[in-house]
Amino acid sequence: MSDNSFKLVLAVETSCDDTSVALVKADGYVVSVLSANQDLEHKDFGGVVPEIAGRNHSLNLLPLMDKLLKSTDTQWEDIDGLAVTNRPGLVGSLLVGLVSIKTIAIAKQLPFVGVNHLEAHLLAPFLKDESYEPPQDFQYPYVALAVSGGHTQLYVVESFGRYKILGKTLDDAAGEAFDKFGKLLGLGFPGGIKVDQHAKEGDVKKYNFPRSLIREDNYNFSFSGLKASAQRLIKKIGQDEKRQFIHSLCASYQEAIVDVLLFKLKKACEELNIPRAVVTGGVSANSRLRARAKIWQEESGVQVVIPPIRYCTDNAAMVGYVGIERLNRGEVSPQDLKPMPRLDESEFLA
Question: DSSP per residue over 300-348, as a string?
Answer without folding.
Answer: H--EEE---HHHHSS-HHHHHHHHHHHHTTT----TT-----S--GGGG
